[in-house]
Design goal:
The chain is of the alpha/beta class and 308 residues long. Helix content is 45%, strand content 20%. The chain folds into 2 domains: 7-124 and 263-287, 3-Layer(aba) Sandwich (Rossmann fold), CATH 3.40.50.2300; 127-260, Rossmann fold, CATH 3.40.50. The chain has a 6-stranded parallel β-sheet, sandwiched between helices.
């Protein structure tokens, strides 16, 4: 009898940690449908991290084309039983449905564009600092009285607003006589090409372009080449696009710059969700610092395996 009890105790000790470690968390990811290479890379990076977590998680990734579709997918994830949701909205109007999920006890980790709600966690690059760095870079290259085109993207919400704020606040401080021409565009090379082709016709002299996105900047570069313009000496960008990096040494007459804003940051958002589910202490907001990439250091950021 004593031997049987001893065996039972040993088996209990052996299998208890296995049972405890078998807990599986249900994680949902809400992302926009792929209209932009950076967005595609976000979904890719999120799934890569979730796969790495293996049996720790059961996950579903949903992509949507507008706020209404994302709201419906949020409801689907709630019905599925998601315990945490990593949400990457690109439209206004997600506060009410996200608040409903919070009220249901679901952990929300907001990636990139801000969802203005108490109680959520957020992971983002430093959008305002990207603007600050862009202003310093342009003034350093073309001086404090140059003519600069600023390409903003109002439809991107807080992303464009913060990058614009950082840029304009810094210009006001270090180069108040900078001549800034502001135009609206989108985060695509097609829009960059179309819009900047028109801008070139309207403006015979431009010294630099404050572009907020690598894909937009690729369109800007194409427009400049097609127009045969040689006056523009600086084009900024943002993101982490390999194709854009590779152009940096091939254009010696233009300083091509990118403020690194890697889609791989979404993996940090997935990790935050897991940490909160495990009961660990996590800061509500995690801001990932800006890194500037240009022809002098681009080799350090080339990655043949990157989907972006």
């Amino acid at each position: 009898m004593k031997k049987l009890m001893l065996v039972a105790v040993v088996l209990l000790l052996v299998f208890t940690p296995l049972v405890a470690s078998a807990q599986q968390y249900k994680i949902g990811v809400l992302a926009p449908a792929v209209t932009h290479g950076w967005v595609a890379a976000v979904a890719y990076e999120a799934e890569a991290r979730l796969k790495e977590l293996g049996d720790q998680v059961s996950y579903r990734i949903q992509t949507s084309s507008n706020a209404e579709e994302m709201t419906a997918q949020l409801d689907d994830l709630m019905t599925w039983g998601a315990e945490a949701i990593v949400a990457f909205p690109q439209w206004a109007g997600m506060e009410v449905p996200m608040e409903r999920a919070l009220d249901a006890g679901i952990i929300i980790v907001n990636f990139d564009i801000v969802i203005d709600l108490d109680g959520i966690y957020r992971v983002s690059g430093d959008n305002e600092d990207m603007g600050i760095q862009g202003a310093h870079y342009i003034v350093d290259k073309v001086g404090p009285e140059a003519t600069v085109v600023m390409l903003e993207v109002p439809s991107s919400g807080s992303v464009s607003a913060l990058r614009k704020k950082g840029f304009l606040d810094t210009v006001a401080e270090i180069a108040p006589n900078l001549n800034i021409l502001t135009y609206a565009t989108q985060f695509t090379r097609e829009d960059g090409l179309k819009d900047f082709s028109d801008i070139l016709i309207r403006n015979p002299k431009i010294d630099a372009v404050y572009s907020m996105d690598d894909e937009t900047s690729l369109g800007v570069l194409q427009a400049i080449r097609e127009a045969g313009r040689t006056d523009i000496k600086v084009i900024t960008g943002g993101g982490g696009m390999q194709e854009y990096f590779e152009l940096m040494p091939d254009n010696p007459d233009i300083w091509i710059q990118s403020a690194l804003y890697s889609p791989a940051m979404v993996q940090d958002a997935v990790d935050v969700a897991i940490q909160v589910l495990k009961g660990e202490e996590v800061e509500k907001v995690k801001i990932i610092p800006t890194t500037i990439v240009d022809r002098e250091n681009y080799l350090n950021f080339l990655d043949a395996n990157s989907p972006y």
